[in-house]
Amino acid sequence: MRVTCLVLAGPNWSLVATSCNKTVIPRVVIAQSMPQSTAPKPGSQSAVRTVTTEADGLRALAALLEAEMAEPFERVLDLIAEITGRLIITGVGKSGHIGAKIAATFASTGTPAFFVHPSEANHGDLGMIGRDDAVLAMSWSGETTELKGIVAYTRRFKLPLIAMTSRPSSTLAREADVALLLPRVAEACPHGLAPTSSTTLQAALGDALAVALLERRGFTPGDFHVFHPGGQLGASLVHVGDLMHVGEALPLVASGTTMAEAIIVMSRKSFGCAAVVDAGGCLIGIVTDGDLRRHLGPDLLAQTVDTVMTANPKTITPETLAAKALEMVNSSNITALMVVRDRRPVGIVHMHDLLRIGVA
């Protein structure tokens, strides 16, 4: 006799059907499935260990900046702020890669800077360094052989030399006018070989210098836009005055206008609204598609805009950044903003205008 054996199913049970040709007494077999392991994966454990190790290094750097590094840090700020030329950043290997990034950050935040590779400097690129420049040399050990030429050049022509290193007794630290001494922290690499925590500290200290100089100079978002005209960042720094519709494009109606006339203006101007102004030309309200729906009735067309409009609408000035305009549109759940100066409408900006230039 062929017998089918069932393994019953439940929340933590599985159902299995088997068959055989022997004459047996049918029975029910109940088997519980094994729970899945919730142990952390090796990869995520490694990631947490790496991030934690580098975060410990950053905390050590922050502590130094509040203590013995505070004075040399201020001296470096003074030195860079006083030069009339550019800040030249140099380094080899991973320090060089971080140096190139730091140079880009300085340049985009108001401090003229560029990266010079020390090997190339030894073969002619020293001519790129002017007599009004200063040099920031980066080396974790402070004994990088390739830096000797550029260090000697700064000493020969009396150029300010800033060292970023971890060894106070190193050649680079001794030769420098000011040395920023990084804490000697453990690398995140389990072998202690690959630059990981050390390069994180270099990048963080470079950012700290750039931001401190930015704040000292009073660098504004407008200044930032000069160096970032492209991409979403550039778009967010465009002013509303560069985007707004003006003149005949404005959907304006006077106080006392009937809704029948206002709807015609709204339809012709295609912004989904009409701004209401008083006899002096000052904005007193706005009629939107939402206002039309809320007042829909048999006498809507005979009413005046004053009874339908939303008083004291959201407004913005031409000098406001596009990013701020988009934030206002999103937070207020509206699609257009009237642009005013001295309470008088001078333009209108629609959400589509902001999206078109790539602010979002």
TrEMBL record:
The record marks 94, 146, 187, 228 as: Catalytically relevant. CDD domains: CBS_pair_SIS_assoc, SIS_Kpsf. It comes from the Bacteria. Zn(2+) binds at residue 117. Residues 244-303, 309-360 form the CBS domain. NCBIfam families: kpsF. Keywords: CBS domain, Isomerase, Metal-binding, Repeat, Zinc. Belongs to the SIS family. GutQ/KpsF subfamily. Residues 76-219 form the SIS domain. GO terms for molecular function: arabinose-5-phosphate isomerase activity; carbohydrate derivative binding; metal ion binding. The lineage of its organism: Bacteria, Pseudomonadati, Pseudomonadota, Alphaproteobacteria, Hyphomicrobiales. InterPro entries: CBS_dom, CBS_dom_sf, GutQ/KpsF_isomerases, KdsD/KpsF-type, SIS_dom, SIS_dom_sf, SIS_Kpsf. This is Sugar isomerase, capsule expression protein. GO terms for biological process: carbohydrate derivative metabolic process; carbohydrate metabolic process. Transmembrane segments: none annotated.
